[in-house]
Amino acid sequence: MNSFYGTKQSQWLKKAEKTRPVIHETRVEPVALIRTKADAKAWQGVKTERIPGGLQEFQKPYHWPKTWIFDFGRHVTGTIEIQWEISSLNDSPLRIDFKFAETPYELATDFETYHGHLDRSWLQDGALVLDEFQPVIRFSRRYAFRYVKLRLGAPNFDIHIKSVTALAQSSAEDSRYTPISAGSGLTAQEIAIDKCSAWTLHECMQGLFEDGPKRDRRLWLGDLRVQALVNGVTYRNFDLVEHCLYILAGSCNEKGEIPGAAYALSHGFAASCMVQTYALLLGPMLLEHYRFSQNAKFCKELYPVALRQIELFRKLIDDKGMIIPGSYSWLFIDHDAELYKETPSLGLYLFSLRRAAELGECLGLPHPELVEEAEKLSKLLFQRCFDKETGLFRADDKNRQLSWATQVWFLLGEVVKGDAARQVWSKTLKSPDALRPHTPYLWCSVLEAGWMLGKTADVRKIIRDYWGGMLKRKLDTFPEVFVPENPMFSSYGDCLMNSDCHAWSCGAGYYLRLIADQRA
Length: 520
Ligand code: RAM
Description:
three-stranded antiparallel beta sheet, 14 strands, binds alpha-L-rhamnopyranose
């Protein structure tokens, strides 16, 4: 066991073990039996339609295997239970082929066509073979779905399916959630977006704040920051935030570097991936957690970990204020292979310096040198990256790439302030050439920058256009990636692998609630 933080590190893991959340389970009945149909106008080219005869069709006894597709009418994270009877003793094993799907496209597409580069095992299908009949079958794994396709039956006896019920699981307490009221001044569409944001979060709130209940089913620091913000204005489960932060802090490596992600296993937590741009978010996240929960004791406990991430990142920067090539393992900003990530990462570093200093002030542990460092680096970055012609920041003096990512992170890092910052913001919105975000994650950073600059009307418009665009396309929860002009976009080589209920996309709800509060 590594111990950069001495015995504290194992204590954090022990505290995490002790604060495992309670998972609430609710029974959800299907709302329809459906089939899929190709439709060029539907999102990803597939729609669903109800089959004639209605939902009770599946409850009629029958012979020979039949395929049914159950629509639960909402996204479910959980499993299913089948109650059934057979007309005589089974003299052969009983086989149930199954597929769980979050979207109509996933439901309609043959998983054997999958050609992406992540493991096919994330796709949710298989067969259950029972040697002996059991009247109640509860599937042992957890799935993420709205649709369940089952093929069951036998040639030698009748089967009678009595019920197929979803057992929905979440550590979010439904009673804590109150929708934004119609009198808040928000539009019906905005209220619907907030509801869908909260539901997306709800579905990802399991033993951990998971990124996506279909995939990767793990705790990512970057996703966690967005989740913690929305949680702070909805379910307010601060114990779960602390549980997750204890896991990550307890899993630091021998340099004291916090992992980008952790995966829960029955015997503990496995750390995976070092993501320096996520590690830098620990300080800002602790500051936000302090503001929500007022738990200064907890924030003081992890403050040294946040400062250490800054110390480690500082070593990746040369005296010209450039990131040393090859010095880091992963700078994640957006799922976009074209994006030059070093420059926005420097903006994120500035953001981390400034927020960590602010947290220090709140905790009575001042670190003014962090702000001095931020001011110095801001000047260097302005000199190197600001392009007078466009009024925007380029990647650097040689690489002339223009991206929303750089503008947004430079704004959040306060490379420019006041009117100058507001001009960069307005020019970014109008720039036809700047690389646009691919994921709701980077769009959340866009909202954050706009909100910080007081650009409420722009923030609302982005939410209405982008998140509203997802609702228009009838998505039940907000997904990992949403590129309106490219419905098949995937960072994994095949959109079957995309996670269609993905926590980092719930961020719109946070800003909508701030806007509603402002108007109250
Ligand atoms: C993928 C997921 C996850 C994200 C990482 C960087 O695995 O989308 O949410 O945090 O990438």
